[in-house]
């Protein structure tokens, strides 16, 4: 199954969080927080402005991004957890 987000929405797959700290301690699942970083899987066509024009999104598939803690809706695509959110909820693109 393939999913294509509409308008200014993007689909993000969260990055995997580290299992242990730099000091070698293992972090239990109950103490882990969901990462606020992910990889963009798919993007919509763009935001529809008040005058009816479509503004293309600033992010593209493959970008690594930071997003708001409580942003978006969690969805399952092909059995994997993803997050669907608006472009406005993306805080920035991580550049290597």
From TrEMBL:
It comes from Vulgatibacter incomptus. GO terms for cellular component: cytoplasm. SUPFAM superfamilies: GroES-like. GO terms for molecular function: ATP binding; metal ion binding; protein folding chaperone; protein-folding chaperone binding; unfolded protein binding. Its main location: cytoplasm. Heptamer of 7 subunits arranged in a ring. Interacts with the chaperonin GroEL. Coiled coil: none annotated. This is Co-chaperonin GroES. Belongs to the GroES chaperonin family. PANTHER family: 10 KDA HEAT SHOCK PROTEIN, CO-CHAPERONIN GROES. It is found in: Cytoplasm. Together with the chaperonin GroEL, plays an essential role in assisting protein folding. The GroEL-GroES system forms a nano-cage that allows encapsulation of the non-native substrate proteins and provides a physical environment optimized to promote and accelerate protein folding. GroES binds to the apical surface of the GroEL ring, thereby capping the opening of the GroEL channel. Keywords: Chaperone, Cytoplasm, Stress response.
